[in-house]
Amino acid sequence: MSINNNVRMFLNDKDGASQKLARDILDGMADWVRVIDRNGIVIYENETMRREIGFDSMGKSCYFSLGQSCECKKCITKTTFQTEAISEKEQIIEDRIFSIKSSPVKDSKGNIYAVVEVFRDITKEKNLESQLIERNGKMNKDIKYSTALQKKILPSKGSYGPVSIDYIYHPAEVLSGDMFDIVNINERYTCVYISDVVGHGVSASILTMFVRQTMRAIMENTIEPSKVLKELHKSFLDLNIDDDKYFTIIYGVLDNKEKTFTYANAGHNSFPLLIKKDKIKVLENSGFPICYLFDQINHKEKKINIEKDDKLLLYTDGIIELRNKSGEEFGIERLQNSIKGKKGNLIKHILDAMDDFHYDEPQDDIALLKIRMN
Fold this sequence. Notes:
By secondary structure, the protein is an alpha+beta fold. It has helices at 3-11, 16-27, 47-53, 76-83, 123-152, 202-219, 225-239, 317-320, 331-339, 346-357; strands spanning 32-37, 42-45, 87-93, 96-106, 112-121, 158-160, 163-170, 178-184, 189-197, 247-255, 260-266, 273-276, 279-282, 301-305, 311-315, 366-373. The protein is 33% helix and 29% strand. Helix 9 packs across helix 10.
């Protein structure tokens, strides 16, 4: 069959008007469009392709019009003829990247007699994709560094003068919104806190750094719980960040001389537990979180006696809000039951109970700090 006959069959030319309309539509497309017969010969190309490649490739091989001396290693035209299905690939032509789609052209009996190829210039998209991959790589590297840094600034497990500590720390994402710290002020006073920033991820983790650095700066001047939280709230207001950012915190001071623990609560709904021999006491206390809703907040202090071998558990709501398949929460009662009457490593008992209870990856950051009086 001649080239002219192939072209007429492709355009299905019934009259001059329909032929002109078909050509006007194809020539008006921003994409390159061409038709190739079974012999790999170009039997039609639209005006856009002809103009941009710089010559008329009608009657020439399909690879010649793309500036090649031989056919492509992956010839989607042949694939379409063989499979009678649409085939796609990406190809670099000079300094441009094209997405090429090859579709079968059939006659009235359903037989393929040609293939139509549409070339879409995706150079900008691919360059943007490369930039995003590069930036994501840098971001992932930065996040890994931030993760290592966040874990590094956590207190080491072991002895801190009159107390020793152990803990659980499991971010829901790579970075956590939970933070805790313990500081020996002198031989008499040891300060401890645990905080929970709303949300998790990068923004929450940045705020945990603020909490840690600010708390350490404040404790250089005062350790009184109500005053410390008041100064912390004032420093937070000075940040002038989004109104939806806030955090909760419990802060307390262990007095090794008086054998007491004085603490204040800024909106932290996970009340600490005091473990005295076989008895567990919930250290309830209320207060407003550190947020922008209030210009000034006063937090109420509470004091308890604490003795040798007593233990304190400070934790975040990621533990008590852990859910099972039925949607039930782990809750403070299950937390207490996991350690009630238990000997040995309390952290392990808690982890075992959590593993037995939940069925999926935790949706929130998890942190628990155990403090034992030496």
